[in-house]
Amino acid sequence: MSTGTVTIAPLRREDAPRCARIEQDLFPGDDPWSEGAFRSELDNGAFYVGAYLDGVLIGYAGLGLTDFEASVHTIAVVAGQQGTGVGKALLRTLLAKADETGLPVFLEVRTDNATAINLYLAHGFEHLGLRRRYYQPSGADAYTMGRPANRD
């Protein structure tokens, strides 16, 4: 772990190759997103932020927004920086964006990802349901979770 400065800022289109590499490292048993998938998300107006350690992308998070709800599309942090608060900072940035619009937030998370589940529970999410074999090709199950709109 580096002791440099982490900055949360809008994800840039030129970050797509690095995002795809991080996806391949973190999610090899499932269908990692491609560069094109990240570019498409950015081009289609989804809200994405990156975590930059001394200018190097070490994590990213994305939020889809409709008139009725927000949906966490992804949160990822490179293995060497997990557990340092980067994921929490990314999630809080997404939630702040959803709160600006007064939208409830929904997400899916692997049932075996206790760290992420605990993070979401600590930020007001509740279990809503179970999607069997949601992640492919691994066939891992996912919990659906939701957080009510913060209308403060």
UniProtKB/TrEMBL annotation:
The gene is rimI. Gene3D superfamilies: 3.40.630.30. PROSITE patterns: GNAT (PS51186). Keywords: Acyltransferase, Cytoplasm, Transferase. It comes from the Bacteria. Its main location: cytoplasm. Residues 6-150 form the N-acetyltransferase domain. InterPro entries: AcTrfase_RimI/Ard1, Acyl_CoA_acyltransferase, Bact_Acetyltransf, GNAT_dom. Belongs to the acetyltransferase family. RimI subfamily. It catalyses: N-terminal L-alanyl-[ribosomal protein bS18] + acetyl-CoA = N-terminal N(alpha)-acetyl-L-alanyl-[ribosomal protein bS18] + CoA + H(+). This is [Ribosomal protein bS18]-alanine N-acetyltransferase. Its EC number is 2.3.1.266. It comes from Saccharothrix yanglingensis. Acetylates the N-terminal alanine of ribosomal protein bS18. It is found in: Cytoplasm. Pfam families: Acetyltransf_1.
